[in-house]
Fold each of these.
Amino acid sequence: MYDFAYHKPSSVAEAVAILAADPEAKPISGGQTLLPALKHRLNRPSALIDLSGIAELKKVTQEGNEIVIGAMVKHYEVATNPLIKGAIPALAAMASTIGDTQVRNRGTMGGSCANNDPAADYPAAALALGATFVTDKRSIPAEEFFLGMFTTALEPDELLVAVRFPIPAKAGYAKMRNPASRYSMAGVFVAKTAQGVRVAVNGAGSSAFRRPEAEAALEANWSPEAVANLDQAADDLNSDIHGSAEYRAHLVKVMTKRAVIDAG
């Protein structure tokens, strides 16, 4: 691990000011990705900006027909928060399957979304629910936020503050986890929203993506049978020692059906 300065601001404004003054500084939330990178000397920030002291990033509220989750809310808190469990139970259930107990008690929703690991769960939920990402500067629709593997629309001096999730009529999630790492090999989040049916996939490709053909099928007939025989193309899907692109395509097909069953 290389030497770095350490800051612990108490407000978003203070954190953003540090980022603006030092382009090489990095914000850190739960540290589940950044800390291992630092230990292996894969990253060399001039300073770490610890966001754990910013109370406004830890709130969960309901505003109209939306649940607003602060960027520093931990996976465990997403899984157990009564407001989230009551309004979007599929999101809470999904958070309860992330990693293991230690990861869920340290990792944060905002950190996961800003990192955009292909196997992360939240991107699929954000796309399927039509979420909006709120930063210190602007609001970004989920469709425009995730740009590719480990890449988002966030600018270097921009800080994710919260994510706004519209409350769906129905939603469900299903995934196949790698038995060793527990990372998702393919996960599918389905939601019946005010804007129509939305289906999003994580783990199978380089970034989360939607399945328009599955959305159309479920729009016409909301049932597991509607997507049971709907194949997913293997083009552009991940292929590695854990599973081929064809295997992941099959998983997407199976998980879509299971997610609809989970939604009810």
Amino acid sequence: MVAEASTDPRRRDFRQGLISWSLTTLAHGIKWLLLSLVFSVLTEWVGMTFWWPDQGLDHSREMLAAELGYLQADFGRSLVSSDPARFTKTVVDRTYYVLFELTRIADFIEWVGRAPAAGESGLRPRLYAVFKPVAEYVLAAVQVTQVFSVRLAVLVLAMPVFVMFTLVAIVDGLVKRDLRRWGGGRESSFVYHWAKRSALPLLVLTWVIYLALPISLHPSFVVLPFAALFALSVAVTASTFKKYL
């Protein structure tokens, strides 16, 4: 019976270690960031074709200018960095380096984007003929990546808002839990599990929605509502925690 229990996969207890959990979480985070970036680029391309064809490449350029304007106007200080502007520049530069310079994509764009000399033959003139009609789309993708990097830095700088809201929510929830405990109130496992499972998706949605927005929007209009919803889920989770520890 012991041997049967040890080989029965239904009775195995799989425990994920701290390192495994950290690597899994990091992989999921990178996956969602890449998906947000790809969605942002695809949305910009669709918009250039159907929604703002007159603006073309200027749309992503104006978005980048607007995002930088929000950063300079409202992020003079942050608990994450003493110099938010320098922090953002570092994020933008490193993202550009990893995605375009390290992969040699920037060199390839520069090489294939040069008009061929008169009488030049070979592969490059053929590639130039293919690249020329989609050059604006490629450059728009580069600029959208820079917008993505600025927004990524803004979200990191805004994370103390989530921490502050969460601390307040935990205190409020625990107070309500004690009142319920001493008052003999009923506890609902359904509400507890629903609130507990909604916290992480709300945090992920904040990043995904803001990073993938096809228009410029002040980060407060995204961060504050989702921070409030996240805090609400934490408060409900804490207040509906089991009556007796």
Amino acid sequence: MTDPIPFTPDLSVKPEVAAFYDKETGTISYVVKDPDSNVCAVIDSVMDIDYAAGRIAYANADRIIQHIKDHGLKLEWIIETHAHADHLSAAPYIQQKLGGRMGIGENIRIVQDTFGKIFNEGTEFQRDGSQFDRLFTDGDSYRIGTMTAHAMETPGHTPACMTHVIGDAAFVGDTLFMPDGGSARADFPGGDARTLFRSIKRVLALPPQMRLFMCHDYGPNGRDIKWETSVAEERAHNIHVHDGVTEEEFVKMREARDRTLAMPKLIIPSLQVNIRAGHVPIDGSGKPVLKVPINTL
């Protein structure tokens, strides 16, 4: 059974949304502006990494920072829809430059515990979510200028996944893709296809005109990259979860499909960084380092 939506969306509020696409990871980051003030939030930022060379950079984050400065905006929130496995968060870098509070779902603690064991982290690694400024629970609200934003739990891809509903716009993270992309995988540690189906149905219970913004797009069949759709379009055309697809059909499809997928190429650095709210791990000598667990994922 799908849990009810724990708030009533205000469709009269129409945030201004600027999208920033990262070709290397297929990630879309967003600046979400209150139309009635100069206040904004950043959702799912990207830190650049040359994994082979062990170098990080901030070209993607700098584009977002420059946009905020050019438009005279005040950054209040830096939101992560979940702990990403395919790109590294630039949240601390953006916070250092512009301020704002970092927020993620409270179940990041589950993800931290799971991957703390996988990466053999020591007791100095806190697994209580304290690296973030705010841990959201289902139905929590927060303010972006005059707008009220709502956090809604949508686990399945990871335990910490949340959809953030801001006026007539919902930022779904990896819970959904564009209609011709279907849905995200559910085979990472802590993921579950049945839970994902129920979370998707929760998103699709939002009003049909609700704008939906994706965290990823890969241009299926060579089409141009897209990131905005609607609840109505997803319900009518999503190749995995359109109206009429049963839970059992989805679980069978998702689990079979997941067995064919390779691990994301950046999963090892991404998770080590993202469970730390975007900070690179530091070794005993004070140097930033990444581990590579063998035969574990």
